[in-house]
Amino acid sequence: HKKAFIFDLDGVIVDTAKYHFLAWKKIATELGIDFTHEHNELLKGVSRVRSLDIILELGNKEASQEDKNKWLTQKNEDYLSQLVDMDSSEILPGVFKVLQFLKENNQPIALGSASKNARPILEKTGIISYFDVIVDGNDVTNAKPDPEVFLNAAQLLNVKPEDAIVFEDSVAGIQAANIAKMISIGIGDETILHEAQYIFKDFTAISQSFIEDLIKKP
Ligand code: G16
Ligand code: MG
Predict the structure, then answer these.
(1) Where is this site: Important for catalytic activity and assists the phosphoryl transfer reaction to Asp8 by balancing charge and orienting the reacting groups (predicted)?
(2) How far apart, in whole angstroms, are the C-alpha atoms of residue 149 and residue 108?
(3) Would you state the pLDDT for residue 47?
């Protein structure tokens, strides 16, 4: 069967997760909410709007839509200011090699990200041409763990969900891939991503034969 290799963006291809954290941390501190790295796991893969709601819930705070919009804009401006000088050096270890190997083997590649900033990031890092299909936060209405983003990507590539392979660094994203009945591959901490079918600490830990086996899988 023809396969589809679907990559999450933040935390999988580039280490922008740290910039998201710093931007949210600033907002939380302003609001007097204690926001830790552990709390941040809840935000990974989750939309901007939902992320703010989670932070407010953590601090037991309610806010007007006007204030929320202000903080959402502030967060994104702060986040984007971190990306100004972004280039290919921000691509996480081993990622480029895997993309290259998939391309050489004519494998369909998709992006499945919750971010509305996905395209400029792929352009700045110089890898946008590797992607046959891009589905991001501008294209979907339901955020991960809803599988919409991955199902759309597979459908655009004309591949059945069972033949799609998802690389994810977030719990919400792994759950989305599992709900879609796709092969879920966690990139990161195995205690956090234990729901994934396979877990690797990063792309350097993925061997070429592992990828070959996925390609050949009946
Ligand atoms: C990413 C991050 C999330 C972020 C979301 C929205 O998703 O993991 O933390 O809140 O995108 O990003 P933006 O504010 O840029 O629209 P993913 O799915 O690429 O990991
Ligand atoms: Mg991610």
Answers:
(1) 113, 144
(2) 16
(3) 92
